[in-house]
Every structure is written in structure tokens, then in C-alpha cells.
Write a structure and sequence with these properties.
Chain lengths: 110, 571
Amino acid sequence: MSSLDLAQIQELKEIMEDAFDDLISTYLKDSEEKLVKLNQAISSQDSSEIAELAHSIKGASANIFAEELSELCRIVEDAGRANQVDNLSADLDAINTEFAKVKSELKALS
Amino acid sequence: MDETPLNILIADDNQSDRMILSAIVKKMGHQVCEAADGIQAVEQFTDKKPDIILLDVMMPNKNGQEAAIEIKQLAGEDMVPIIFLTSLQDAHDLAACLESGGDDFLSKPYNKIILQAKINAFSRMLKMHNTMQKQRDVIQENNEHMRHEQEVARAVYDNVAHSGCLDLPNIKYLLSPFSVFNGDVLLAARRPSGSVHILLGDFTGHGLPAAIGAMPLAEIFYGMTAKGFLMTDILREINAKLKNILPVGYFCCTCMVNLSFRRERMEVWMGGLPDFALYREADNKVEHIKSRHLPLGVLSSSAFNPETQAFAFKPGDKFYMWSDGIIEARNEQGELFGEERLFSTFNGSNSDLFFDNIINSVNDFAGENGKDDDTTLLELSMVDESVIGKVDIDLTSGAVTGPTDWHLSYTLRDETLKTFNPLPMMLNILNDVPSLRSISGQLYTLMAELFSNAFEHGVLGLDSKLKSSADGFAQYYQQRETAMANMVEEFVRFDFDLTPNSNATGGKLTIVVEDSGKGFDYKHLNKSSEGNLGYSGRGIPLISSLCDSLTYYGNGNKVEVVLSWKNRIEE
């Protein structure tokens, strides 16, 4: 099953026209940086940093119709806000795995 | 989309989100400026003056809500719609976003159609808001312009109205500060004879229509009073003028009073006003004085009736005039103050307190409710003429040098005698002589007495003794009417002769008055004049006191008076 909503992303491609490739590489670069920071924040159990980073990745991922990734980030964001950050390694693994899938699918599209 | 391209600020710390929004907005034909955090958003707002702002909530440096508060403050009364970029699940954010000035929300993933709908809706709202602001500014400007005009109009009006003598010691009055524009008019002026004309007018309506009517009214009132015209002539003139210039439905409810100190009498003409109060000290009673006429400016000149009511007005007596603002003052329950309450203020107190009682009663009744001050009140009392002082008539518009050597003969025959008052016209001619101008009042009194003697006692043969009682007064005027109707080939002739003295340091005025009547036994005058009872009606002691010499000729139907003067040395 695809990690992206392909019908929606087709529409986004039409809106972005020539800038679509640029959008994808910007998204990937930005998200990769934030994922690194999220990994660090989770190991140091910094709740507010976790919430902020997960929120940011959640929004950006929703906008490129990576719904599963966005949903996984929401769970981590909520945990950060609820200050329950001692048991997030499984969630973080899921995010990292899902991001890798999104990345390869996006690269195939552009 | 709407035809006008807008400038739209996109503030989001996530670059890929900005790129998507920017692409959608540009596709709609609008311009875009971008900000990556809250601080940049406020800066961009100041620099680029965007029409609509798309604002992310969670941003570094300054979050969306803080930025929104600052932007709304900077915008002032301009409308700047802010659409918050947030997912609708974040319910705890939404309320805070609204509070900080947010107008709408857009959730991720961004939907092109929904964003278009929102932008178009706000675009229409902006247009409406701008139109409204422009119209409001125009209205405000017009309003200010009008207020300024009213201030100027008021200043002009004050210059006309304040040449009067409302400050005489026998007049107390209360005039609301905005009287010009509530349609109330209060005027007072001395006649050359020394008596006082007072006019209280209440124009229909408020504002400029009322003030405009007051201008000619005041001009005519002051102009004609100073020239010695009678109240009836002045009322006729004002009525004709107002009828002529005011639109249908606009008129002036008026009371005009002529107060004669010498005769201790008061003549009143009232049209369209509520009852006024006449207090007589002798029997300590208050009489209702009623309007007998329609307001000024309603009837044509031919239908207008200037007939006055005459009252004895003794020292201690008082006359109260008011505008309907007093009667129509309302309390908090909406009740009217009313005529009954107004007249009850006269009950049982010292007459010196009446004036203050009226004001206090109205204020107590109306309470805070009645602070609109739309009231005019005047108290008139009788005092000795010496308290009032001499008439100071300003005829500065006359020539500096005037005729100094001339003769004028003026004969008034039947029809003229019946209907015309020759005094203002004769006084005008004498006022052309600079030296006589300063004694204008004296001349008026002199000519009035001479004319009254020649016409009423000479031509009409009326007995002055009748006038000494109240009953006699009525009889006197009845006889006068009959005698006037039966006049055939009668006349009164005035001969004025003015000569300068030999070295031009003064001059001499001789007035000879001859009438077609039987004359009277002036030869016994000198013998009995000490008691001056028999001739008091002819005012002979008064005439003598005003001139250098008084001589009767023939049967007593011809009299000569002489006045001489020294020129005042010009500075």
C-alpha cells in the first residue's frame, strides 16, 4: 500500500507546476533535519522540543498527503504535550520507517 | 476570483508549507509576500501592507497569536483579515486564535478550493469595509463642515442680536446657550421715546432654518425700534418679511411688548405662544395673558392684525414670558412639566423669588433628564425711568456733516392722519443734522406730544381728562374712532425751520405745529400751570421742559417751540 494519496498529490503537482520538484526536495531536506533533531530530543526526553518538532513534521507531511506519517507524528506530538516521553522509541522507529517509504515514493514521482 | 488582485502575506516557519500556499495564491492572481516567523510577519505587515494574512500558529521567535495581536493593533481601524493555519483538531488553540484577532482557520492539508473560497469572501468584505470607511469619512467631513458653518452663523447672529439691551436693570432672563439653533429669539431695544421694546420669538424647527429667520427679524426689530416706529408697524413689517422668506409650515410664535415707563403701561401682542403670566402687586394675583393672534409669518399682510392688548404696569408688577421648552420639559417618567405646574410656582412666595422659583421647579422636575436646556425665560418689571437711564441711540451710519440751514413744511390731511404715523419719517429728517442726533430721544418725545395735541385734542377734539381713569381710557378710544370716521378736510401741519447761529457755533430749530381744530384756552394756561392739573393730558409741562420756549398763537391751534444748541467741539 502506498504511503501517499496519489490522486491528491497529482493535483498538488498541477498546482505547483515547475516548482513541484523543488517542493519535494525542500520537504525532504527540511524533514530529514527535523527527524534528526526529533531523535535527539526523544533520547534526551525534552517534551516541548518533541511536541514542536513532531507538530512541524506532521503539518508538512499532511500537506504533501503523507497521511500515515502525519498521523504517526500526531501521536508523538500528543505524547510530548502530555509530557509522557519515556516510552517513545517504538513510535520513533515507526516514523523513521514511514519517512523512508515516503521519501522513496516521492523520489519516484519527481 | 474577484477582479482586484490582493497582496497576501504567508507566514509559516515550514518552507514547504509556504511553497504550497504561495503556489495556490499566485494561481488565483494575487501577489504574495512571505515570512518565516512571527517577527518577520509583523515586519512584512508594516512594509508591504498586505490585504489578507495567512498566519501559522506555531512559529519560532514570535508565535502566530502574538504576531496577530501586534498586527491588529498596527492596523487600527483598517480591516486586515487574519486566517490562522492550524489543524482543527488543536481545539485548545482555536479559542486563543480567535481572541488574538483571528478571523478564520485553514487546516492542513491545504485545500485549494477552500482557500479560494475564504480569500474571495474576505476580498468582498474588504471592499465593503473600504467603501464604508470612505463614506464614513465623507459624512464626518460634511458634519464638521456643517458644524463650522453653524459656528460662523452663530457669530454673525450674535453680532446682530447683541446690540440689544437685555441687560437693563428691569429685565431678568435665561437663554439656553444653543438658543440660536433651537429657534428661540430674545430681543430688547429702547425706543427714542425711552420706552422698551421686547420680543420673544420661537421659530418652528431647529437648526439653520430657525436661525435664518431670526436674522431679518432682529434687523427689523432693532432698525425700526431705533427709528421710533411703533410696535404695530414693526410687527407688520416682520410678519410680511417672514411670510415672504420662510417656506410654508415655518413661522415664528411671537410675543412683543412695548413697556412705557412714563405711562406705567404695557402693550402686548401675542401670537401662537402659551399663556404668559402678569403679576400685579396691588392684589397679589397672577393673570393669564393669552395669545390672540396666529404666529408671525403665517398670514398675508392684508389679513395680519397688529392689534395689541394694553395693561397698566405699576412698580412692583411683573410680566413673565417663556418659550414652550419650559412647559414641554419632561421628567424621567416622560410627563410634561405643563402649564398648571408652571403657574403654581407663583403661589405663596415673595415676587422677588418668582424667576428663580420657575427655573428651580423646572430643573427639579426634569432632573438629569432635562439637561437639554431648551428653555427661554424672561422677567420684566416696572421701575422708575431714572433707574433705566437715558436712551443711547447709535446712529453712527449718518453723515458727518449734514444740512444745517433749511425749512420744511409737512401737511398731513384726512386719510394720512387716519392711518399714518409721521414721527419716524420726521425724526429721520432731523437725525440728518449731526447736532440733533444726540438729542434724538428728546426730539421724538417733543414731536410725539406736539402731534398728539394737534391731532387728538385739536383735530379730533378729544378731552384729555378722560384718560385719567381706566373706564375713561376705553371711552376715549371709542370717541377717537368716531371722530376719525367723521373727519372732513382736517389737517395737521408741521413747519420745521433750522438755522445756524451767526458764527456757526450752534443753531436753532423752530417747530410750528398748526391744526384745523378749534384750539383751546391757552391764555389761562400760565395762570393755572402751577398745579398743572387741567393740562396734564396735553403734556405741556413735559414739552416746556424739553425746549427753550413754547408759544401758543391764535385760538390755541398753532404752537411754536424753539430749541437751540451749541455744537460740541469735535476732538
